[in-house]
Amino acid sequence: MKTRIISLTLVAAALALVAGAVADTHRKLNHLRASSDEAWREIAAIQEQRVIVAKAALNSVAGSVDPQLLLQLNDKLQRSTAMPARLVALDDPAAINAYKQGHGELTGALFVLTTRATVSTGPLEQLRTQLPREEAALADARERYREASAAFNARNRGALAALLRYRPLEQTL
Fold first, then answer.
1. Alpha-carbon span 51 to 68, nearest angstrom
2. Mind listing the pLDDT tens digit for each residue in 104-132?
3. Do residues 112 and 120 make contact, with C-beta atoms less than 8 angstroms apart?
């Protein structure tokens, strides 16, 4: 009887240790995931603001820019907004790559617009001044995301993380 009580006590203690380890891992992974989500939201906000300014700039120069360039820019604008950042799963590399490609192409096209436009409008000037600042802000936000996702992925290893079913985050933005 005494050995049974000792055995049950040891089993209960082991279960309590495992439950504590699972809870601690879950808490830490949630915190690290929240940090990467915050950096991702910052990236998304910058890019959403860029789209607003880009649309205004495009509308302001519509009659004075090569129509083919306008068509290309409108296409890139539509593709970059077809997948809002808030809907991109950070553990889905294909979605991240599509998002990156769409916004990368848009950025390049907007720089082309700022150099080829022959008129000067308020929205175009805003785009000209905002693009370089946004690129610096995006670089900072991407670095914060990379650091947070690397920390998450480093912690997201082993049996406990597998038990919690966390998937690694894409690290390259």
1. 19
2. 999 999 999 999 888 889 999 999 999 99
3. no
